[in-house]
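For concreteness, we quote verbatim a single protein encoded this way:
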Amino acid sequence: MDWLAELFETNRIIVLSVSGQVFFVMGLAVALQSRQRSELPLARPLGWLAGFGIVHGLMEWGYLFIPIQSGFLPQPLIEGLLVLQLMLKPISFALLFQFGVELLLSTGGARPWLRLVPTCVVGLWAVATVTLSSTVASGFIPETGPWVRADEIGPALAAVGSPLAVGDVTARTLLALPGSVVVALALRRTMRQLGPAAGPRVAGALSTAAFAFGVYAVVAGLVPLPAPFPPASVINDRAVLTAIGVPIEVFRSLTGLAIALAVIRSLNLFEQETDRALAEARHRELLLRERERIGRDLHDGIIQSIYAAGLHLEQASTKDGADAKRIGTVMDELNRITGDIRSTIFDLRSGELESRDAEAIVLAVADELQAHSLIGLEIGWEGLFRPRLHHEQAEHLRHIVTEAFSNVLRHAHARNVTVSMLCTQRRFTLEIRDDGAGFDADAPTERGRRGRAQGLANMRRRAELLDGAITVESVFGQGTRLSLTMPVATTRRPS
């Protein structure tokens, strides 16, 4: 094994350079591909993984550049660089730990208080490092190993050798080991949660990344620098080099390369999400065009034909007798059918609204209401904020408003409708009030009331999906008041 150890020692610069590059490149690639607006569970925690890759890469490069600079820089500055490198190590592992916790939280696999664990462990690392360093023999210098050679730094390493070794042991044991395990578990959970939506390529990449992080927990968490206390006194990078002739940095570099490739390949998940969103947008556009065509055909064709037939029947009804009564009955039925078709056109056209602005949604549906009736409409807005809706919220709100106005058009026989909107910093309230016939929501006996009751039930289910609530107050002969309250993200309205 001596020739193998000598080979790696000769190419130590290449090994250390690659070790830093794989993590730095991974962090940079993840940072450039980060999708904060994505709805996938992997999106938001990626910033922590990017931070880990970049910081850990810089830390690994310190093993290469600090010895090079030791021949040119004064000893105090070299000591400062060694301490800085020591601090970067737990920071990088803490970022990895935080990524795993945040990913678990985004998949519903952890409790919110776990978010504080990595920070607490960093504090524990600091206490353990200071405490153990004071108990280690004064002037302790880690033995020669592939990470850095004592003879290259000399006095500077002698001054801070004890904290370097102790800090490495505690950082790997307290942060790298559990952090890598948590990330592996979180990636497996993410893969199961995505299911078929991930596709075989992304699922394979996530599975590979999870396995690679499991291996990294061993090579990065269980093999520290040599130190005169367990476990570093038993298993360390020098012991590995002596046993197999290969420095542990080689295994870390290979594992880091596998992690980088797997993580970068898994980022195709966002491209798939974008493709699905574009396909859904195209589908919605085609559907809305078809709705518009059907509504236009109904309005320009069938309604006009029914209206013409009604005029002929009206002329025939001027005669006396039983036939005139039957004709009158037919005319009433035609009027009812015309009203139902107008309501259908109203429902079809209201589906074509694509705005995510709450006020625009209400105004557009209200315009449809006025276009098919003589109802007086008054709309008011209060508050300093404007709701910022995502697509799902806009869809549910659109359906609720459409159903509410359809009820006014079909059942209320109202003369006036008042709409008021109020948006505070965190909540949006919509109130629709009419002066129509009113109804008893607790006694849906007639056919029309059953339909209205079903519509109210649908609105309430949509409100629950919005984490909101709908209240309905109605009195026979005095109209109806419907109120929707829902939490929203907001922006301040322009003054």
Summary: Strands lie at 376-382, 385-388, 416-423, 427-434, 469-475, 479-487, 489-492. The CA atoms of residues 375 and 415 lie 5 Å apart. The two ends are 76 Å apart (CA to CA). The mean pLDDT is 78.
